[in-house]
Write a structure and sequence with these properties.
By secondary structure, the protein is an alpha/beta fold. It is built from 6 helices and 5 strands. The chain has one domain: Cytidine Deaminase, domain 2 (3-Layer(aba) Sandwich), CATH 3.40.140. It has a 5-stranded mixed β-sheet with strand order 2-1-3-4-5, with helices on both faces. The two termini are 22 Å apart. Keywords: Hydrolase, Metal-binding, Zinc. Its cofactor is Zn(2+). Belongs to the cytidine and deoxycytidylate deaminase family. This is tRNA-specific adenosine deaminase.
Length: 152
C-alpha cells in the first residue's frame, strides 16, 4: 500500500535518526516544503566534539529525567541540526513542515516557531507538554502520527 505524504517523510526521518549518536533517544528530523526535502538533522554532539556513543551520556551520569533540564546535554537536537543545516546552506525553511521521530522539546519549539515552520509532524510523545502549548499559541499546526516502528 502506498504511504501518505506524511508517512513517506516520517519514514525518511526514521532513516535519518539512524545517524544519531545519542544513547537515550535516536531522533531524526526532515524539513519539507512543497513535497521537497530542504534539510535533515539528527541528534548528536556539536561539530568536532566527542559523541555520547564514545564517552557516555552526561544526562545518565547525572540521573536527569527525560524532558527536563535540556541544557544539560552534549547533543544538539535533530530539529536544531536541521535548522542549522538549512542556514549553513542558505535554504529558507519559512512555511515548511518538519517531520520528527519524536515530539520537539520546548527549546526546539521556540526555534521552529521563529524559523516560521508552519507544521510539525511527529510520532513519539515527549514529556514536555509546554512545547505543544507554544505551538498552539503560535498557530503552528501539530500532528501526531501513529508510530509505525516495527518490533524486532
Amino acid at each position: 500500500m502506498r504511504p501518505s505524504t506524511d508517512e513517506y517523510f516520517m519514514e525518511i526521518a526514521r532513516v535519518v535518526a539512524h545517524r544519531s549518536t545519542c544513547l537515550r533517544n535516536k531522533v531524526g528530523a526532515v524539513i519539507v516544503r512543497d513535497k521537497h526535502i530542504l534539510s535533515t538533522g539528527y541528534n548528536g554532539a556539536p561539530h568536532n566534539m566527542e559523541h555520547c556513543l564514545d564517552i557516555g551520556c552526561m544526562r545518565d551520569q547525572q540521573n536527569i529525567a527525560s524532558g527536563t533540564r535540556h541544557e544539560v546535554c552534549r547533543a544538539v537536537h535533530a530539529e536544531q541540526n536541521a535548522i542549522i543545516q538549512s542556514a549553513l546552506h542558505g535554504i529558507s525553511i519559512k512555511d515548511a513542515t518538519i517531520y520528527c521521530t519524536h515530539q520537539p522539546c520546548i527549546l526546539c519549539a521556540k526555534m521552529l516557531i521563529n524559523a516560521h515552520i508552519k507544521r510539525v509532524v511527529f510520532e513519539e510523545s515527549y514529556p514536555d507538554r509546554e512545547a505543544i502549548n507554544f505551538f498552539n499559541m503560535a498557530a503552528v499546526e501539530v500532528v501526531q502520527l501513529e508510530s509505525k516502528i516495527e518490533e524486532k
